[in-house]
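User: Can you predict the 3D structure for this chain?
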Amino acid sequence: MADPARPWAGRRTVIVHDWLTGSRGGEKVLDAICRLVPDAPILTLVSTPEALTGALAGRRVRTSLIQHLPFSATRYREYLPLFPAAIEQFDLDDVDLVISTSHCAAKAVVPTGRAVHVCYCHSPMRYAWDQFPAYFGPARVGRLASAALRPVLAWLARWDAATAPRVTAFAANSRHVAGRIARYYNRDAAVLYPPVDTDFFTPGPDEGARGDHAADRGFALVVSALVPYKRIDIAIEAAAQAGWPLTIVGTGPDDKRLRAMAGPSVTFLGHVDLETLRDLYRRAGALILPGEEDFGIAPVEALACGCPVVALARGGATETVDDGVTGLLVSELSAPAFAAALQQISRLPAGAAGRRQRALRFAPAAFEAGFAALVARTLEGRSASC
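Assistant: Here is the predicted structure, written as structure tokens:
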């Protein structure tokens, strides 16, 4: 009888991930899955050495043709029209179980008819479905390029939907994403929140002796990939209007534009190690999350460290932030609205201990048990139908 805690044991398993280029939320989920399934190789479009840390260190990694194209490590998104061909060329003839973690193309890998494919979906392809303007609108790439790209992304949306039947079972990282999967793929998805390392992300040892008000902490914090849909520009404007210094952690293609609009009170740190990130959460007066997140791991990490969150009242933040208790949810996507929330953040009733308690809902043990149960149910369902 199969071990219900390790239903993949004894099966020829591969893990498929979109790309391995840095420590973002999706790769933290990948790390957790790799710890559960330690012997499975990883298939990915492109990989960089600095991404292979934690449970990914020493792992067998097979990359696609995109790995060999010019500047693929930093400009892989420019090869977006090649993603379908690249992901479909992976050979899975000897595989029994496919586990994909996907927000772009990984879920479209082609398994054999006998294989089971479980997809942990961070989101259907955002830029192909409902965020084209944020990535490829005229203000981003110019009017002619935007017009030329629109039919390409429409084609990718059709391909994204057409490849959904290659997945045996979907898991979504939030109720918000489960709704998107139902809307774009016409499929049900189990909701399985990503794991957050609440054993590492903790309040500081002197938390009880310090003031809990924003004024005692000194600065606002953004922890995010610097990409258009994250709306970091709103955070920069809001902090300036509220009179808060702002520290930004993260890298991405929007870096140059954001630096150009930021004033002297904004500090860009780029990539930081985990100890530095934890220290920033512990010292920040608030984490700002102005974009619509599919889930958003950074807010939960911040709450686990006792830091309140100011977030847009859409998407995953509505499932992680208790409005008026552990943070504030802002209904209007504007700098004045976020500035007003920053000025009210010190009035929240929950202290650091209360914020941390709410974050413990997303501890790794819940993810591990839920993921094993999902794979076991899917394998049992396939066996029963054969």
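The chain has a mean pLDDT of 90. The chain is about 40% helix and 15% strand.
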